[in-house]
Every structure is written in C-alpha cells, then in structure tokens.
Write a structure and sequence with these properties.
The protein is of the alpha+beta class. The protein is built from 14 helices and seven strands. The protein has two domains: 152 residues, no CATH class; 145 residues, no CATH class. Helices cover 48% and strands 9% of the residues. α9 runs antiparallel to α10.
Length: 340
C-alpha cells in the first residue's frame, strides 16, 4: 500500500471569499435606537456591508471545485484529499478550468462592485452612516478574494514518530465513513417517503461505486465495500427511461439501507473479510446467504462476488432478495469491531 500511496496525490484547495458581515458595536445602535436594524443588514451582532448575492457566484464555483475533488478523493486529515494516480491529470485540468472561471467572475463582480455598494446603502438610508463607516473599498474587498490549490505527493519523512502512517492506515475507515454519509444523504433525500424514484436516483450510487473502485488499493476490505455497492445496483433492472416501479424502488431502498446503516455495514464487511481470509465461505455460499435475508438482520445484503466486477457503466441491474423469505438464525452478540 505504501508504494501505491506514494504515487497518489494530495490535493489541497484554498479558496478565500470575504463575508459581508462586520462586527457591530453599541455605538452603531445608539443613533437609531430604539429601532433595530432590519434583518437584511444585521444578523448575529454583525452588519452586512454589501449584498450577499453579489458574491454568490464565487461560492458556487468553490463548491464545484470541492465536489470535483471529493468525487474521486478521500479526506486526508485536515490537509486535503488523496486522489489515485489515474485521476491526477483529470482533476488538475478540472481545477484549472474552475480557477479560470473563478477569476473571470471575480473581475466581472468587482467591475460593478462600487455600484452594488451604493445600491445596497440606498435601501437602508437610516443606516447609511454605519454602513459607510464599516464598508471597505472595492479594492480591499477584491484583495481578499482568491483561488489556489496545491497538488503534491505523499511521502512520510523523519523518524517515523509522526502520525502520517496512522493517517494513511486510517484511510480505509475514512472511505467507509464517506460512502456511508453519501448513502445516508441519498436515502434521506431521494428514497424515504417516496413510492417511486427516477433513474436519476441511481446516479449517486454509481458515483459511490466509482469512487471506491478508484481507491480499491487502500485496503482489501475496500473491495468488499465495492461489491456491496454492486449488490445495490444489481437490486433490480431499472426501466430504460422514466421512473422505477414501486417494487423496483423498494428493492433499491432495501439494498441501500445496508450502506446507510454504518454499524451493520461495518459488521458485514468484517464478517465477509474474515470468511474470505479463512476460506470458510465460497462465492456460492455468499450468494446463497442473500436468498433469505431478514429486515432485522444487520447483514441484509450479505453476498458479494469474489470475482472482479465490471465497471460502473456496465453494471447490470439484477434481482435482489425480498423480505418474505425465512430469517437467518440468530447470531451471538459480538463486540463492535473497527472497520479496517
């Protein structure tokens, strides 16, 4: 793993965008007392010295850059995200494009910023003195707007007493955490409370699968996580267009529940890993164990293929077990185990 990690890149994004808030003092309120400033210009003890909508496009570009990295990378401490060697060139090109558009949008905003400031003050004439006192010049605001990113190799240095190796070892657990969060958000936003969903709801699941597959070298257990996501994609065949049927939606939701349930997913991966390592479960056994899942069983979807699977674009959606079969025999309680 260390050799593969040395070929990866750590990407750190640095985007600075000034907020419109400036701290308010008691003196700011005396002149207009007992009237309080409207919420549009004052919140949480601060005055907004310009319209937040004026710089909203810059925040949109920042989020676009963050998504571009998060889509293929895994968080590495608080420094940035690790991306696989095969993704370095594409991520660099995408960030360069976003950076160019960011500075083009900055120039467009700053060219009209003085006018935006005056228009903002005109909306609140009774607070003009306070706003002008706290308002900086367009040049001062512009100096605080920036977009940079760093891309570097990961190579531990020193005597080995630093925590770098520990962070590298923990990447597999971090990958599981990020996939679990994505699955939970997808379940909450797209599946809970809906009888039918569109094919668009399957796209995030494929993106999860692609991300794990890119980082499969992190741990052997990452392969089990990828196989588990494949089981979700194979839950049922979606229609060629439009919405899934209620039955198809139910099967996808049931399969997705395992990934959204972190304790169950952790236990599932640990058990499959141990069984494969000890050679106690064959591929057929794993597939058979899927034929009679129980809704209350923490391994609702316990079958993964030990053989390499196709890439996300070529994954076929097949039938997943339903909840009508007999439940599995009860398992003895076991202590929680770390994922990786």
């Amino acid at each position: 793993m260390q050799q593969q990690m040395s070929e990866c890149a750590l990407v750190a994004l640095e985007v600075s965008i000034p907020t419109p808030g400036r701290k308010a003092s008691k003196a700011d309120f005396k002149k207009a007392a007992p009237d309080l400033p409207p919420e549009a210009i004052s919140t949480m003890g601060a005055f907004r010295i310009f319209n937040p909508k004026a710089i909203a496009p810059l925040y949109n570009l920042k989020r676009e850059a963050e998504r571009a990295i998060a889509k293929v990378g895994i968080r590495f401490g608080k420094m940035g995200r690790v991306i696989a060697p095969d993704d370095i060139e594409a991520v660099e090109a995408e960030l360069n494009d976003i950076r160019d558009r960011f500075f083009a949008k900055k120039a467009e905003i700053m060219a009209d910023f003085a006018h935006q400031q005056e228009a903002w003050i005109e909306q609140f004439p009774e607070w003009e003195d306070v706003l002008r006192k706290k308002m900086g010049s367009p040049a001062e605001i512009g100096d605080k707007i920036g977009f940079r990113y760093q891309m570097m190799k990961i190579q531990p240095a020193g005597t080995g007493d630093a925590d770098t190796e520990e962070t590298i070892t923990g990447l597999s657990g971090q990958l599981l955490e990020e996939i679990h969060q994505d699955a939970s958000e997808l379940m909450e936003n797209s599946f809970i409370g809906r009888e039918r969903v569109t094919r668009k709801a399957l796209r995030p699941i494929k993106e999860m699968r692609e991300k794990v597959n890119r980082l499969i070298f992190i741990s052997p257990k990452a392969m089990i996580l990828r196989d588990t996501i494949d089981r979700v994609l194979n839950a049922c065949p979606p229609p060629s267009e439009g919405r899934l049927t209620e039955e198809q939606t139910d099967r996808i939701r049931s399969a997705l529940h395992l990934i959204a349930d972190k304790p169950a997913l952790t236990t599932h991966i640990e058990r499959v890993f141990e069984a494969r390592r000890n050679g106690t479960v064959s591929v057929e056994d794993e597939e058979d164990s899927d034929e009679a899942p129980s809704p209350d069983d923490e391994a609702v979807i316990s079958g993964e293929s030990a053989d390499p699977v196709e890439e996300a674009d070529s994954v076929e959606i097949t039938e997943e077990a339903d909840d009508t079969a007999a439940p599995n025999p009860p398992e003895p309680e076991r202590p929680a185990v770390p994922i990786f």
